[in-house]
Amino acid sequence: MSIQISDPMLPELYKVTKIQENTHDTFTLEMVPKNKTKIFSFLPGQFNMIYLFGVGEVPISISGDPSSTDFLVHTIRAVGTVTDAMSKIKEGQTVGIRGPFGSHWPIEKAMGKDVLLIAGGIGLAPLRPVVYYILAHRSKYRKVVLLYGTRSPDDIIYEEEYQNWQENFDITVETTVDNTDSEWQGHVGIVSALISKKDFSPTNMVAIICGPEIMMHFSVQELVRREVTWNDIYISMERNMKCAIGFCGHCQYGAKFICKDGPVFCYSSIQETLKRREI
Amino acid sequence: MNPSTLPNNKQIIIERQNFQRLLDVLKNQGYQLRGPTVREGAIVYDEINLVKDLPEGWTDVQDKASYRLQKRDDKALFGYVVGPHSWKKFLHPPVLKLWEAKRCEDGFEIKEKVAFTPQYAFIGVRSCELHAIAIQDKVFIEGPYVDTTYKNRREKIFVVAINCGEAGETCFCTSMNTGPQVSFGFDLALTEVIQPDRHYFVVMIGSAKGHDVIKEIPHTKASNQEISIAQSKVEQAREEMGRTMDTSDIKNLLYRNHDHTQWDKVAERCLSCGNCTMVCPTCFCTTVEDVTDLTGEETTRVRKWDSCFTMDFSYLHGGSVRTSVKSRYRQWMTHKLATWIDQFDTSGCVGCGRCISWCPVGIDITEEVAIIQEDKAKEKNDENA
Amino acid sequence: MKMLKTILENHPSFQELEREHLKFVIDNAENIEFKAEELLFKEGEKADKLYIIQSGKIAIELFTPSRGSITIQTLGLNEIVGWSLTPPYQRSFDARCVEDSQAISIDGKALRIRCEEDSKFGYELLKNFTYTVVQRLQRTRIQLLDIYKIRT
Known about the structure:
The structure holds 3 protein chains of 3 kinds. Chain A folds into 2 domains: 7-101, Elongation Factor Tu (Ef-tu), domain 3 (Beta Barrel); 114-236, Nucleotide-binding domain of ferredoxin-NADP reductase (FNR) module (Rossmann fold, 3-Layer(aba) Sandwich), CATH 3.40.50.80. Chain A has 5 helices and 16 strands. Chain A has helices at residues 81-86, 128-136, 159-169, 213-225, 267-274; strands spanning 2-4, 12-21, 26-33, 47-52, 56-61, 72-77, 94-101, 114-120, 144-150, 171-177, 187-188, 205-210, 233-236, 252-253, 256-257, 264-266. In chain A, a hairpin with a 4-residue loop joins strand 2 and strand 3 (26-33). The termini of chain B are far apart.
């Protein structure tokens, strides 16, 4: 008797149809499946494993519109061997996709509440599907604020979309940078410093945070200072990952597997683990 | 399968001289036999065909960082405890080809591969090892995703279990509630009895498959005396247990002691070699690599056993999350004894003692736990004082 | 528009002051406005006023010969610019208005004279200010970490 081995490890083939350079090290790929007309449906915050022939496979959050199943969108930062190789990809090339995997941002829970989105660097990419979801269901949410921090003005992604979000959908977008030499008119400083200046209802809101761990850590501190409870704070975690289906063991974070219990976690469920070093 | 639903759940006797018949029947039913055999100074699990492939008359003497074979003064077939191998290497292969791909005009295409699932009969599975298999079942079969390689192999196995008549110096299955008496997951469970004038096996039938095999082998009904002799063998093993581990509140104990100084002390000895993870019958971690041919035209995705003791294991763009040896030992032990319980509702340790014997510097998981437990006792005393 | 009293008695740096002390601060405060690009003060100037931003954005800048003025941090709603309470009572950076802003200006000189005379007031004020300084130092530390940089 014979069967096909390890099906969840077998990628589907996708063809890269469009490449957009977002910054000097960040790019966005649009892809369509080679053997189907529609992509799978996904929820904001979920990720795929993207495979490049002969190089390897990496977990990347989906950054496209969850209501569109025509093509798949990933914004990727070249930070290692596989993503460096991906930055050299050409239109028409094939990649392997496995997914979508993992938990999602609390888009249902946030309905009827203020939504505070806090992003750092490439961390805006996993939040963009939330923004798209809110755009499509704007009346279901109250005040929506996006606070976004990057290294410098040149590292800001999706800037071309902010005007639409702000003017047509009443979403506040504020950007801040760590360093600037230019004629930058936005904020300078870490993104968590903006939290104290924003007006939202601490008891009727959901905070959604994605970025480097330390940035999320300080954002949570600022939120707690505003008397937001841990139950209303959500963050997305990242760890080494080889399989995305709970078998490889690499993404363990305390008792959690980032791949299947996360990547999105309610802060109250992992705050004990976050206190621990080298876990 | 529930033995009580079988037509014949009484225990039977197979004489030593008919043991080859058991192997032959299983082979005849299409099973590839895997069992203990002596190789390079150790009893390992590998292909066997004949009784003479078994470690007849051998035993293993184990202690911290020590494993030696020794001649027995009898001709026991299963007169040892456990060696460096476990059955996981057959169900969860150390190296597994996932799929192959070939470069083509517009990128690459995946070659549809079909895998043949071997049908194994495991000869001589200890109770702790059955528990280890049950633990890996939770990881690979009972979660949201199923590892089909594991599942397909697992479903086909025939298990000839063996009750332990002796315990090793590094054994602590009684502490982990995983032995020495085989209690589930077997088709046949044997207890080896050697008397001055007789060498036989008391056999319990655990499944219809087991029953079908027994039908083909000359056997007699076990007498109450024979059953009670077999039972006393297991009791003897229970009493000889070389080590113990206090598992009361162990999960919270380790959660509370993330910053215990003992981790630093282990790190002074631990070589971070990963031996403990390789010999552990429940450790399941893997990595996946691309193995490309010289032309770069073809590549194979290969899954390999991996160890949380390597720096690469926790690598996250630019550095490892667990850089210190201390953090890696702590990860392994805390996973095994604490987080595993939250993840899979069972301990990840079956008390087989392999990690103790095969640690080149003799780190003993039971000692490490005891030291942390001791401090707990001290804390309590301080509170009471 | 909120009254000075309302703003100050709800501001983290002043809300815990005794009534008499709070009144003293209010008596020495006034509403002011800055236009975009306007300088609040320059490095080296005497530090006699502190500002609590009510709207808009103020940049803390350092001037370097090769790179010109560099913004280190921007400050906004309810944040304080220019302490004026500790020696040498001199501005250590430029403060420039990035966009039209409103602020409350407080006579720092009057505050510090009162602090010298009334150590309870001085302690309360400095305690609250120190908290804000520590918070700002912590933010600067994170900025220094360059957390978005790719580690190699």
